[in-house]
Design brief:
With 589 residues, this protein is of the alpha+beta class. The chain has four domains: 83 residues, no CATH class; 203 residues, no CATH class; 79 residues, 2-Layer Sandwich (Phosphorylase Kinase, domain 1); 201 residues, Transferase(Phosphotransferase), domain 1 (Orthogonal Bundle). 55% of the residues lie in helices and 9% in strands. It has 21 helices and ten strands. The chain has a five-stranded antiparallel sheet with strand order 1-2-3-5-4, with helices on both faces. Helix 1 crosses helix 3, helix 5 crosses helix 6 and helix 6 runs antiparallel to helix 7. The longest helix is centred in the N-terminal third of the chain and has 34 residues.
């Protein structure tokens, strides 16, 4: 496909992306005017925007691309941030179990409450005070019994819907308790019965303490949610007493005759105990789910996220070896073919033995059909965070990192693998064997075997991070070329040296258009002291035509080594620069 064809692809795509799905094929066929390569390429790009892809925000781009400007920030589709709308995979399982537990317990509690309320209404014929708040008793009875029926009959309720039913049940009982307690205290005040008033006040505190304990220990909650609900509830009996005093001043006079009062704030103690119990129960449930989730691995904490899934610090239960676990997003592994693809790619990545490539220990499929793989845990920071914290790197240090990554790519490319997502966030500055500023190439989640391309005529989606994607990754996503990795590495070098990306824009689409059409500004524009020979190497990496770039990672590695600053980053320099990261903790991805 020549430059004219690419320009035609761009023109037809921009014109057709806003059309309804049923009109696109005919529109593209007419505009392509018999050029099947252009027609196929445009339909592939339009299909990418129609489906949910790794770029996450395709649907949002469709609505604005016709005007040439997207309101979606470019960061929203980059792999390091695109997964932020996804819930924590393990916590998601907690919420599922919470839904099941909440449903069962709420049914039981609703039935018990409905029974107690019905008994209190029947006592109307034997106990005169049973008539207090009779209408509210009927209301609470209908709500609790109706809630139990809904929870039992409707099986596909979401957690949010179950929580709303929980709110209805508990609020109806709370309103009933307030009305009955208030009526008892007012009636005692009218009668001038101090004993009855004091007993009603004590009963008021005991009822609320009991409700708080029941809710806190039986309803699955995080401690934050339990505290938000229960501590305000612990003040309700005091609020009821204040309301009674405002209605009838006699209440205050009779309450003064209670010399003992309520020395222990029962409801506050009940709220504190319930919040602590909710915390213990939630942690226990989370620990049980984690153990079931990854069998032989113990999850310690989440340390990163990406477009493919979440990364956790973990420990092998038998070997006691620390590692990093990556859980692949479940929707990406739907179907046997998808699972086989992930297994093949992880196996291919595991074959790589270069010291500058992340080492993969293990992979598997959990009982919940979540694909995961375990890899080495690295101290240090990725190059994106390094530049953000310390600014552009010295040319000697930047070249030091780039040369190491070239070594990792040499092995990968010789094995028939293309990374396709080279970016600063996927290059880690760590320490290995006492050697500082030792770089590791991470996240082969988008790796492809370019030697097997029998499926290149199938529909493909654009995958990667726009600011670091080669033009051919955007125009021909079915083609896996090792030179695309060298282009991306040139974008990385540009960023390390200047703190700026080679291409930017107001939207993801604008950035991709720049990658295809715009000529990059020389890095010396941002940094006057940049060596000219190093700038020439970076600019050659950023050539639009793959034939004009370095053809192999070895050639790029030799060119970088041949620069005047190549090999000048000494061990002492590395130790001094890496010292600032020693206390940053362990992080990944």
């Amino acid at each position: 496909m020549n430059s004219d064809d690419r320009a035609l692809v761009k023109e037809i795509f921009n014109a057709g992306v806003g059309l309804p799905e049923g009109e696109r094929s005919e529109f593209v066929r007419l505009r392509a005017d018999g050029n099947q390569a252009v027609e196929k390429e445009v339909l592939s790009l339009l299909g990418y925007h129609q489906e949910e892809t790794l770029l996450e925000s395709g649907a949002a781009l469709i609505g604005t691309v016709a005007e040439g400007v997207s309101s979606v920030p470019p960061e929203s589709i980059e792999i390091e941030t695109s997964a932020e709308i996804e819930p924590n995979l393990i916590l998601q399982e907690v919420w599922k179990e919470n839904s099941r537990t909440l449903r069962r317990r709420l049914i039981a509690i609703s039935l018990v409450l409905a029974t107690l309320i019905s008994i209190s209404m029947l006592r109307l014929f034997t106990f005169k005070y049973a008539a207090l708040g009779y209408g509210f008793r009927v209301y609470a009875f209908v709500v609790t019994l109706g809630s139990a029926w809904c929870l039992y009959r409707i099986r596909d309720l979401s957690l949010k819907q179950i929580r709303l039913i929980e709110l209805a049940v508990m609020s109806s009982v709370a309103v009933l308790a307030i009305v009955v307690n208030l009526r008892l205290m007012i009636d005692a005040a009218v009668r001038g019965d101090a004993v009855m008033l004091i007993a009603a006040n004590h009963w008021n505190h005991m009822v609320w303490a009991l409700l708080i304990l029941i809710y806190g220990t039986f309803m699955p909650n995080t401690w934050q949610r339990a505290a938000w609900i229960l501590f305000p509830a612990s003040l309700m009996p005091y609020w009821v007493t204040m309301c009674a005093e405002l209605i009838d001043p006699q209440v205050n006079f009779l309450m003064d005759q209670d010399e003992m009062g309520i020395p222990i704030p029962l409801t506050l103690i009940a709220a504190g105990v319930s919040v602590f119990a909710a915390h213990l129960i939630h942690d226990a449930r989370l620990g049980a789910i984690q153990a079931r989730y990854l069998s032989q691995y113990r999850i310690i904490r989440q340390i990163g996220s990406g477009g493919m899934g979440k990364v956790f610090e973990a420990e092998h239960l038998l070997l006691k070896r620390p590692c990093a676990i990556k859980l692949i997003r479940p929707e990406l592994t739907v179907g046997q073919s998808a699972l086989q693809r992930f297994q093949q790619e992880v196996r291919a990545s595991a074959r790589l033995t270069h010291p500058n490539t992340i080492e993969i220990y293990d992979y598997g499929l959990t009982e919940d059909e979540t694909f995961f793989y375990a890899m080495e845990l690295l101290p240090g920071a990725n190059l994106s965070d390094l530049v953000k914290s310390s600014g552009p790197l010295p040319p000697e240090r930047a070249v030091h990192f780039l040369i190491q990554i070239c070594g990792a790519l040499r092995e990968a490319h010789s094995a028939g693998l293309v990374h396709r997502d080279i970016k600063p966030a996927n290059i880690f500055a760590t320490q290995r064997g006492g050697i500082c500023d030792f770089s590791k190439l991470l996240d082969f989640g988008l790796v492809k075997q370019f030697e097997y391309q029998s499926d290149r005529h199938k529909k493909h989606v654009v995958e990667g991070t726009p600011r670091y994607m080669a033009p051919e990754q955007i125009l021909s996503p079915a083609v896996f070329d090792p030179r695309s990795d060298l282009y991306s590495l040139g974008c990385v070098g540009y960023y390390l040296l200047t703190g700026q990306t080679a291409f930017d824009g107001s939207s993801s689409l604008a950035i991709m258009q720049s990658q295809v059409n715009a000529k990059p500004v020389p890095p010396s524009t941002h940094r006057a002291d940049l060596p000219s020979d190093l700038e020439a190497v970076i600019m050659r990496c950023l050539e639009k035509d793959p034939m004009q770039r370095f053809q192999t990672a070895k050639a790029l590695q030799e060119a970088l080594s041949g620069c005047g600053v190549g090999g000048l980053w000494s061990e002492k320099d590395a130790e001094r620069a890496f010292g600032a990261l020693e206390h940053a903790g362990e992080a990944l991805d």
